[in-house]
UniProtKB/TrEMBL annotation:
It catalyses: beta-D-fructose 6-phosphate + UDP-alpha-D-glucose = sucrose 6(F)-phosphate + UDP + H(+). The keyword Phosphoprotein does not apply. Its EC number is 2.4.1.14. The lineage of its organism: Eukaryota, Viridiplantae, Streptophyta, Embryophyta, Tracheophyta. Pathway: Glycan biosynthesis; sucrose biosynthesis; sucrose from D-fructose 6-phosphate and UDP-alpha-D-glucose: step 1/2. Plays a role in photosynthetic sucrose synthesis by catalyzing the rate-limiting step of sucrose biosynthesis from UDP-glucose and fructose- 6-phosphate. Involved in the regulation of carbon partitioning in the leaves of plants. May regulate the synthesis of sucrose and therefore play a major role as a limiting factor in the export of photoassimilates out of the leaf. Plays a role for sucrose availability that is essential for plant growth and fiber elongation. This is Sucrose-phosphate synthase. Residues 167-433 form the Sucrose synthase first GT-B domain.
Length: 1049
């Protein structure tokens, strides 16, 4: 009964406080003996035992019911609710314990197996769980937030950055984002994160060494929101950047760039954005490439200026940043803000929703998978506090603090980690603006000189509202500023104040608990907390000593801090756990010493500011003692105040940006490899993939001709099915091909681009008007041949004209493709390119058939090799295969390593019994626990497994073609079946067009998608104009009709 949810919440609170559940159960068992009395039970066991005002209100209503039978029925029902909640909570506790035990066993197993590979002697730091002075992210605790004694150090650092011209991309997708008049609190998606990313972009844009910052978000042109959210670009005006105005350039500064994706006329919540993420990635990719070219003209000597880092905020932006990082081959940073696994645990503990209901409402499993991918791809994960690392990130498969310490220790010793990687956790607290804050230096007896902005009068409206509560308003004020939430622990603070007579004599207590009109109009939880506070004030007779004003404006909060400082008071945050503690920093900026919980972010803040005391929030006496110590010891109060004011700049935006940029500087620079001249001598030519001779020569050196080239890698370890004796012939062929291509380019270098194409400039797909990608995962080779023939027949005229090109995208190797083409009566020249091994290899049709049918793009390998585990990954997979085969009966080999189908960047395995192989999500989880970052693809109805680099895929290969050759994604059309390999979802979204050929692929392929972490429906674009479906028994005419619909759209 939804209307009675409030009853559940209060009964749940009673159980948390803790009546003996066995006693409750035994009391309820009396009913079976005919002696159960609900009236007696509630009076003796509930009403007198617990201070729950709303439950008492329900009891009063029941007592007022005239009919005794109805009254007893009401109360009996409430009794059974308590008992049922008790059973549910016990079951949830059991399930939680089981999940923790399973997680612990998985981690221990992963650590053991990782240690088996990393078999060298461990250092002392690696042996223990605590590494002397090394923190969980591999740094000294003392150096986490280094103190600066003077702003001179900041000026020195700023002067060192001059000359650098960095380009940084930030991503925050959900909510309504604009630079001024932010609508914070308008909805659950427009909150603190929106303010943080806007201020971060603004601060970075004003930081020395940063030329441009782009904050990418969603463009919303909906009548439900302000028109400003539909503007493509908005410049963020800098704050206090007069010193750097001389460094401003034509495109410099910070900008909000709004990318259109998803429904054009709707503002939708973040849970519904997942199907549209690929469309954002494609739009953002287009913007970044264009901006890199613009910046190259301005500051890069006509060489593209690529982002030094792409920083995703929250899971949806993290997923996008990972794909962009892979498409551009640039470093990625990630900030979670709030994490899905932690939220899932909290929701499961409440017991009101099942796991399926939670996922339906919050799309939580898709969110968690995005966060796992962000861990796979990120160089650095930025957190606000140590608590976020220790309590939240350790819940993820991709982060294990113990294994992370071992890997860091090995890196410091320059010892191989065997392909394992953990992102670096960096604690960088959010920045704040302090330039407008003037600390209060006066007191209630001696007034300071006021200014127009900060008058000295004690009669400010909010001051009068607070001081009217006090009989002696000149006593030091203990200030607490928090909403009336049980987690904020305000009642314990009032009890501590009420039971300490000395504290009452020395100080007043001010509780700023949000805004309210009437208690009855508040939410049940908030009103319960407030009523408890009022009852405690009455119990301890604290009238004239405690203030609890009903209203305050947001702009009056600084005045409240000033009043507390003016009385030489103390700020307190007694929350049971505080993720960060922004109010503590604000209070310190106004010169207030602090008393704060020792759980969570305040520990990090206190370590930097050293301006107060930490307490156990459950220990009422500890809270009273800390407050009494600060208000009674003037020397201690002054020292804490001075420390806070001296160190507060460490939480300023300039300091935040300095730490942020130093973290980026520690990342290994990465960017598209073909933008560099191999010999470094060519600097005057354009580096873009245009018509330059140097571009053609670079291609020649990094594309290798192949007859059926398997196991081709950037290392040059090229093995085909030819014998080793043909190596000399292959080398001679390659050299002749290079010379031939170079001669052709020289001959046409003076002609127009079209003339260059006419002589066979490589690759042919660059001159096509449209590209058709055949990514159909058929159950048999015959079905694939038949499908390709139907597509070719539908586009016969355009094929003959040469205006349309074709790409074959498949899980097969190039050798398998060659055999398949021959057996199907097809020619390699029918296709411009071949995306092989699920996206880990890229081949083109050869310009000169005499040199072989295919040529491999080695630049693509250098583009996707980031985080590739290599031999360490292969050994781990072999162990996994052995463990699967041990479970088989009659010594049957369920999975076998397919060496002949593997390549340098793809480890392939044949599956004989797909039903006995763990689902793809289990293998991904197992590899992540061992810090191996890769993309696992189950292919061909689960009979083949390809393990490839983490940011390689068939969809990412299409983005590479756009980045490398300028082939617009919007001019690509992708053919897929009803379902396909486990990477099927990536082929549907984006700005490219998709044709779903109904009836293609078996139910076994559908089962592959049922075994991923989230339903495929969570990521499928609904009613997208870029997707059409054919009839089940489609013909070539049906295909052509579908394509005409897409071309018209």
């Amino acid at each position: 009964m939804a209307g009675n949810d409030w009853i559940n919440s209060y009964l749940e609170a009673i159980l948390d406080v803790g009546p003996n559940l066995d006693d409750v159960k035994s009391s309820l068992l009396l009913r079976e003996r005919g002696r159960f009395s609900p009236t007696r039970y509630f009076v003796e066991e509930v009403i007198t035992g617990f201070d729950e005002t709303d439950l008492h209100r329900s009891w009063v209503k029941a007592q007022a019911t005239r009919s005794p039978q109805e009254r007893n029925t009401r109360l009996e029902n409430m009794c059974w609710r308590i008992w049922n909640l008790a059973r549910q909570k016990k079951q949830l506790e059991v399930e939680l314990a089981q999940r923790k035990a399973k997680r612990r066993l998985e981690l221990e197993r992963g650590r053991r197996e990782a240690a088996a590979d990393m078999s060298e002697d461990l250092s002392e730091g690696e042996k223990g769980d605590i590494v002397s002075d090394v923190s969980a992210h591999g740094e000294s605790n003392k150096s986490r937030l280094p103190r600066i004694n003077s702003v001179d150090a900041m000026e020195i650092w700023a002067s060192q950055q001059k000359g650098k011209k960095l380009y940084i991309v930030l991503i925050s997708l959900h909510g309504l984002i604009r630079g001024e008049n932010m609508e914070l609190g308008r909805d659950s998606d427009t909150g603190g994160q929106v303010k943080y990313v806007v201020e971060l972009a603004r601060a970075l844009g004003s930081t020395p060494g940063v030329y441009r910052v782009d904050l990418l978000t969603r463009q919303v042109a909906s009548p439900d929101v302000d028109w400003s959210y539909g503007e493509p670009t908005e410049m963020l005006s800098p704050r206090n950047s007069e010193d750097f105005m001389d460094e401003m350039g034509e495109s410099s500064g910070a900008y909000i760039v709004r990318i259109p994706f998803g429904p054009r006329d709707k503002y939708i919540p973040k849970e519904l954005l997942w199907p549209h993420i690929p469309e954002f990635v494609d739009g953002a990719l287009n913007h970044i490439i264009q901006m890199a070219g613009v910046l190259g003209e301005q500051i890069g000597g006509r060489n593209p200026v690529w982002p030094v880092a792409i920083h995703g905020h929250y899971a949806d932006a993290g997923d996008s940043a990972a794909l962009l990082s892979g498409a551009l081959n640039v470093p990625m940073l990630f900030t979670g803000h709030s994490l899905g696994r932690d939220k899932l645990e909290q929701l499961l503990k409440q017991g009101r929703l099942t796991r399926d209901e939670i996922n339906t409402t919050y799309k939580i499993m898709r969110r968690i998978e995005a966060e796992e991918l962000s861990l796979d791809a990120s160089e650095i994960v930025i957190t606000s506090t140590r608590q976020e690392i220790d309590e939240q990130w350790r819940l993820y498969d991709g982060f294990d603090p113990v294994l992370e310490r071992k890997l860091r220790a090995r890196i410091r010793r320059n010892v191989s980690c065997y392909g394992r990687f953990m992102p670096r956790m960096a604690i960088i607290p959010p920045g704040m603006e302090f330039h407008h804050i003037v600390p209060q230096d006066g007191d209630m007896d001696g007034e300071t000189e006021g200014t127009e902005e900060y008058p000295s009068s004690p009669d400010l409206p909010i001051w009068s509202q607070i001081m009217r509560f006090f009989s002696n308003p000149r006593k030091p004020m203990i200030l607490a500023l928090a909403r009336p939430d049980p987690k904020k622990n305000i009642t314990t603070l009032v009890k501590a104040f009420g039971e300490c007579r000395q504290l009452q004599e020395l100080a007043n207590l001010t509780l700023i608990m949000g805004n309210r009109d009437g208690i009855d109009e508040m939410s049940s939880t908030s009103s319960s907390v407030l009523l408890s506070v009022l009852k405690l004030i009455d119990k301890y007779d604290l009238y004239g000593q405690v203030a609890y004003p009903k209203h305050h404006k947001q702009y009056e909060v600084p005045d409240i801090y000033r009043l507390a400082a003016k009385t030489k008071g103390v700020f307190i945050n007694p929350a049971f756990i505080e993720p960060f503690g922004l109010t503590l920093i604000e209070a310190a900026a106004y010169g207030l010493p602090i008393v704060a919980t020792k759980n969570g972010g305040p520990v990090d803040i206190h370590q930097v500011l050293d301006n107060g005391l930490l307490v156990d929030p459950h220990d009422q006496q500890s809270i009273a003692d800390a407050l009494l110590k600060l208000v009674s010891d003037r020397q201690l109060w002054t020292r804490c105040r001075q420390n806070g004011l001296k160190n507060i700049h460490l939480f300023s935006w300039p300091e935040h940006c300095k730490t942020y940029l130093s973290r980026i500087a520690s990342c290994k620079p990465r960017h598209p490899q073909w933008q560099r001249s191999d010999d470094g001598a060519e600097t005057s030519e354009s580096d873009s993939p245009s018509d330059s001779l140097r571009d053609m020569q670079d291609i020649s050196l990094n594309l290798k001709f192949s007859l059926d080239g398997d196991r081709s890698g950037a290392s040059g370890n090229y093995n085909s099915f030819d014998s080793e004796g043909n190596a000399a012939d292959r080398k001679s062929k390659l050299e002749n091909a290079v010379l031939s291509l170079s001669r052709e380019q020289k001959a046409g270098s003076g002609d127009k681009a079209e003339d260059c194409y006419s002589i066979g400039k490589f690759p042919a797909l660059r001159r096509r008007k449209h590209i058709f990608v055949i990514a159909v995962d058929c159950d048999s080779i015959e079905d694939l041949v038949d499908t390709i023939r139907k597509i070719f027949e539908a586009l016969e005229k355009e094929r003959a004209e040469g205006s349309f090109g074709f790409i074959l995208s498949t899980f097969m190797t190039i050798s398998e493709i060659h055999s398949f083409l021959i057996s199907g009566g097809l020619n390699p020249s029918d296709f411009d390119a071949f995306i092989c091994n699920s996206g880990s290899d890229l081949f083109y049709s050869s310009v000169n058939p005499e040199d072989g049918p295919f040529v491999i793009d080695f630049y693509y390998h250098s583009h996707i090799e980031h985080r590739w585990g290599g031999e360490g990954l292969r050994k781990t997979l072999v162990r996994w295969v052995e463990s699967i085969n041990k479970k088989a009966e009659n010594e049957e080999q369920i999975v076998t390593a397919a060496e002949q189908l593997s390549a340098n960047y793809c480890y392939a395995f044949q599956v004989k019994n797909a039903g006995l192989v763990p689902p793809v999500k289990e293998l991904r989880k197992w590899l992540r626990i061992q810090a191996l970052r890769c993309n696992v693809v189950y292919c061909r109805s689960g009979t083949r497994i390809n393990v490839i680099p983490v940011l390689a895929s068939r969809s990412q290969a299409l983005r590479y073609l756009y980045v490398r050759w300028g082939i617009e994604l919007s001019k690509m059309m992708v053919f897929v079946g009803d379902s396909g390999d486990s990477d099927y979802e990536g082929l549907l979204g984006g700005v490219h067009k998709s044709v779903i050929l109904k009836g293609i692929c078996s139910s076994a392929s559908n089962q592959l998608h049922a075994n991923i972490n989230y339903p495929l429906s969570d990521v499928m674009p609904v009613d997208s104009p870029n997707i059409v479906r054919t009839s089940r028994d489609f013909t070539s005419s049906d295909i052509r009709d579908s394509l005409e619909k897409l071309l018209k759209s």
